[in-house]
Structure formats: C-alpha cells, structure tokens
Specification:
By secondary structure, this protein is of the alpha/beta class. The protein has 13 helices and 20 strands.
C-alpha cells in the first residue's frame, strides 16, 4: 500500500515505481494535516437543495463560503489544476479538458491516460509537488494532474485513475494513510469524488439521480469525518468543488466545412481555432459572429480581461464559446455520435451563476461558525500552504483574500525589562 498505489500492485510497480515507505523530513513530522476534498460538479446550492446533512453541519460548525468561483473555462481539469497550483489556466497551461498545443504539435485529451500522465503538459508547482520538494509527504486519490511526474516529482502515495473505485475504498485508504507511522504519514491528502458530476451530466442538476448522488457523497463524508476525528490528529478538512452544473437548453451544431483551412479543437462548450493566417481568422470571425446569438466569438487579443484567458499559445487565435447553457456539437464525417447529456458546465460564471461551486473548511486552523463571501478558487493554494508551513512560488492566488478564515495566532505576552 506504499509508494504508487493500485488495485493491481504488480502493474503499479511497473508503471509508477516509487521508493517504498518514504519518510518526511524531521522538520515536517510535527506539522498539521490538510485533507483537501473535491466533489466534482457539486453546485453551490446542492447542500440545501438536496438536504446534505453532514455537509450542512460541517459548514455550520466551521467555515463556509457563499460560493466558490471557478476559473474560465469552468471545466474539470483546468479548475482542479487551478486549485492545486494557485494559477489561472492561462498560466498553468491546462486551458481546457482537451486542447491543441502549437509548440508540441500535439493534442492533450483528458481521457487519454498517456496525456494525463505526461508531465510536459502540466505547468506550475501543484501542492503535492510543493510539499514533496520541501520534505513533506503527500498522498492523492485521483486528483487531476497527480498521475504525471511534474518537475520530476510525484506524490509519495497515489493511485492511477479507476472509475470503478468506490467511495468506501477511498475513505478506507485515507484512514489507512492517517494511521501510518508519523514519519511516513502524509500531511497533505487530496481526494477526488466524481459521482455528483456524472449524474448531473447524464440526468441534469434537477434530477432525482443527482439528488441521490449528493446524498451518497454526503453519507460517505459523514463516515470520513468520524474516522478522521477518531485519529486524534490535527487534521484540517477543506471541501471544494471545481464547478457547478446547469441544465442544457439546446444544441448548436458545427461542421468541418465551417473551419476549412484552420486547425481547431472542439469541446462541448468551447471551440478553439488556431491559424497563423490573420485573414483566415478574420473570415472565420465574420462567419461565426453571425451564426447564433448564444455564441460568444472573440479573437484572442479581444477576450474579456476578466476571464484571465489570453496569455497562452494553447488558447485559440479565435475562441468560440457558449454564452448560455447550450451544448456545442461538432458533426465530423464518420465520427461516432456523442451521447446525450442533460447537464453541462464550462460557461462563464458571470453569465451562468449555476457554475459556482462550494467551499467548506473545519479544523484546528480554522475559525468556527463563519460565513464568508464568494471568492476565486486560486486562493485555496496559499491557504493550504500557510496551514502546512510551506513556502510558495509566485502565483495568482493571494492569501490575504482568505486569511480571515484562519484563527489568529496566539499572542505572546512581552515580559517587562528588568
């Protein structure tokens, strides 16, 4: 169960060899612990809407934000990696779930394990790399990016993604990590839960199946909270989501002929067009700007500054994205038809507030019974680093935004001079 973890230990030893039972530096052994949990696709209003009793109580007793604001585009991989790096997607490089890189002359696809596990795609210094570089052991369970060797570093304990892994299997593993000997015990644990997002896509955010997924995750978290408390360790639990979910209203279809002469990558809410020919970009702009009123069409230089989505060559020279909860559908000759979906994310949070996520926190580092205003997810990185006593690189996140959630450090009484 040590080093790279897998349900198939022999395969794991071949794919991801790591030193067994790594030890933290002596200076890190007595530090606090952070358990960072992401519930994929958990909308800001789901707890109250669907009666998530454990999460509601957790937020009432600790810290809760009115909402957590995802970065654009509000997709799984860009936002999990923004949380993990404190950087906007334009700066960490995972600009969409799938994209084209003109320098590599290659496409990244989040569904391709070879891409997800290739460190060349992943910029910044994610939290698990930050911890490991400073002598602190980290453990992750399926968090996007953790399968890659980033800056030649992986978490001490990690699992290759397996969609069949149950919530209880993950909870048992977290408990096992917390029961390791002190020098081997990870002080940073990241845990990913996809169940709510899956049901939200297939059935929509208002569906009974989505409600059931919320209740299932909430019950699992209740069991996890009990197990963490039983350890007696100073564990700070932070629960977030990468984005929310909106009901899809209709589809807008695109064809290959519309992009003739250009390289493009097509997603369900956004299409990026790459071309070194300004005249071609102008022609495509003139075509798509009149295609549908629910489409936003921008040359890269004209993208709204508030999106923080310009400064990367992986972003298209022309960017087309849905302004409302519509689905973009690309009809390619001979392509397999994509499945039907009822729920979708990826939209601007300012236009589609259903994209907002959650932030709850509780533990010895946090104040109690505090509700704060919504904030951007890039500020979680410096918060976690502060609790763990880690030195951070230059990032987009700012600790000052979230510092009020932390307990004030105890003041020392000055002895009078004699």
């Amino acid at each position: 169960m040590f080093g790279c973890l897998s349900l198939l230990p022999l395969l794991a030893s071949l794919v991801c060899a790591q030193p067994a039972r790594p030890a933290s530096a002596p200076s890190q052994v007595d530090k606090p612990y952070v358990l960072l949990i992401s519930i994929d696709g958990y909308r800001y209003d789901y707890s109250e809407k669907y009666g998530a009793e454990n999460l509601i109580a957790f937020g009432q007793q600790g810290v809760r934000a009115k909402a957590l604001l995802p970065e654009f585009p509000t997709l799984t991989f860009p936002n999990h990696y923004s949380i993990a790096t404190g950087l906007y997607p334009e700066h960490h490089g995972i600009v969409e779930n799938a994209f084209w890189d003109p320098a590599f002359q290659a496409s990244f696809r989040f569904t391709n394990p070879a891409d997800a596990g290739d460190g060349r795609w992943w910029g910044g210094t994610p939290l698990w790399v930050l911890a490991e570089q400073q002598g602190m052991r980290a453990a992750t369970y399926f968090w996007p990016g953790t399968e890659a060797r980033i800056q030649n570093t992986r978490p001490s304990y990690w699992y290759p993604y397996n969609s069949k892994t149950t919530l209880d299997e993950k909870i048992r593993q977290v408990d096992a990590w917390l029961h390791l000997p002190p020098a081997e015990r990870p002080h940073l644990i990241l845990l990913y839960m996809p169940e709510v997002d899956h049901q939200g896509h297939v059935h929509g955010p208002e569906a009974p199946e989505t409600r059931a997924a919320v209740k299932e995750v909430d019950a699992a978290l209740g069991r996890l909270f009990e197990q963490v408390r039983a350890t007696g360790l100073p564990v700070n639990i932070i629960i977030v989501s990468d984005h929310g979910m909106a009901q899809v209203t209709r589809e807008i279809r695109f064809t290959t002929e519309e992009f003739e002469g250009a390289k493009f990558s097509a997603g369900t809410t956004q299409i990026d067009v790459h071309s070194k020919d300004p005249a071609l970009i102008d022609r495509l702009y003139d075509h798509f700007i009149h295609k549908d009123p629910d489409l936003a069409v921008y040359r890269k230089a004209d993208l709204p500054p508030a999106l923080h989505y310009r400064d990367n060559p992986r972003i298209g020279d022309l960017v087309i994205y849905a302004k409302t909860p519509v689905r973009l559908r690309y009809d390619a000759p001979g392509a397999r038809p994509s499945g039907h979906v009822e729920g979708m994310h990826g939209y601007e949070v300012a236009r589609v507030p259903e994209m907002k996520g959650i932030f709850y926190a509780q533990g010895p580092a946090f104040r109690q019974r505090l509700v704060i205003e919504e904030f951007q997810n890039i500020h979680i990185y410096p918060l976690v680093a502060k609790i763990l006593g880690l030195t951070t690189p230059q990032i987009d996140g700012n600790l000052a935004v979230v510092a009020p959630v932390l307990k004030a450090p105890p003041t020392r009484r000055m002895r009078p001079n004699k």
